[in-house]
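To: structure subgroup
Subject: Chain for Friday's discussion

All,

I'm putting the inputs and outputs inline so they're searchable in the archive.
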Amino acid sequence: MINSIFSKRMATKLSINFFVSVGVISGVIQIITSSYPDLIAHYQWKGWVTILLICLIFAFIRSWPKRSFSESFANPDVKIGIKVGNIFDQEGHLVIGFSDTFDTEIGDVVSKDSMQGQFLVSMYGNNQNKLDIDLDALLQNEESEEDIEKTRGKNKRYKVGTVVSLSGLNRKFFCCAYSRMGADLKATSDINSLWVSLQNLWNKIRIEGEQKTIVMPVIGTNLARVPGISFKLPIDLILLSFIINSRVEPISKELVLMIREEDKDKINLLEIQDFLKSLHN
């Protein structure tokens, strides 16, 4: 949020909205003074200062970055929302990012603050055994190979881009492996892996999502650790991929992309809003 407020884009929007409001009010004043020529003269400089303050307040209200916003599209016929908050407070199918080993052990293997860790606690009541059983049942027909060098957590690797869907109460959890968990327990990914994973995710949602609202976090944030790659890039890739694939074949009527509270100051929300609008082209 701070990045959004103190940014060149914020200053530009503020200037545009200020001068637009000045223009509108000036037009109204001209109409009024044509009938009451002495009205403005009566208030003199105090009246103009008041008008300018009103215009400035209006510009700030119009330009201030929101914690949530959405954009509706005609082609494809979808709605995309951006929200700052907790994904587990939202209604709809959820997308949960995993590594290629589908590790679930909280601690050194999976951080309790990660999406997998929060998913285990929030949706499975911290019952790791139940989650492992459900995942293994869905992954048994997926191609895999054992990695003997990985001695902590699970050592069965699946292809990056593997997607399985767990069933919850009136919703599904689409578990997407978009990164590779190293033997050192560090998950890494790249742009190509994220793009491929997104294609597979949309295909899975087409088949099992029933056109219901899809709520997902910003998967691929570990790309931001790579020099020259911003935290915003995974967001752009997700939005672009969803629009492109929705034009090929419908995925869902609505996608809600959730940004964690702790990540909101790493991005410029105004830039995301402008990028979302640019996808109409």
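Points worth raising on Friday:
The beta strands are 68-72, 79-84, 93-99, 144-146, 156-158, 163-168, 171-181, 187-188, 214-217, 254-259.
The radius of gyration is 24 Å.

D.
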